[in-house]
Specification:
single chain; alpha+beta; about 15% strand; elongated; binds iron/sulfur cluster
Amino acid sequence: MTVGNLIKSIFFIEILKGLSLTLRTLFTRPVTRRYPKVERPAQPGFRGLHALAKDETGRMKCVGCGLCGAYCPSQCIYIYTTEGDDHTKEVDRYEIEVLRCIYCGFCVEACPFGAISLSEHYEYSSYSRDDLYMTKQKLLENWDNYFAGQKGIRYYHDFWRPKLEDFRGSEEQASIGRRNAT
Ligand code: SF4
Ligand code: SF4
């Protein structure tokens, strides 16, 4: 033990420092928020409840390619498709078992159409497992509720790669690698 440490031990310097800190903060305002009475806005870019995006005509953007489900490490995305009358793929069911999701965001990054999103909404706890099983209908409603107007555009622009402008139509499919290569 050094002489300095010995003196500190004899005179309880560290304890006195701690007590003085306690005294200094004893009468300051507490920083604790009494949630849920006092709401706390989500941090921008927070990965919360899932939503299925709609295009400007109100149609679901998802084409049922299944990439999001393939990338999902929790394997909690279920997609059921059938062939439509004009031989296009119809997404009959798109479901997410939210209780198994780890909010990694891989599904959002994997989707070539910007069709699946993680909203900033985080207050969706429930006593029922069914409430946390997201069907296609619920996911589309989440889009209306949490991505209305410019909010969704800003969210994609600010927090996701590839960014919104990287999403292209079927002629030049979205791909960061291809975009950079041209
Ligand atoms: S955030 Fe991750 S775990 Fe959750 S559904 Fe998407 S890919 Fe799966
Ligand atoms: S990757 Fe996108 S378009 Fe493909 S199934 Fe998933 S959400 Fe739909």
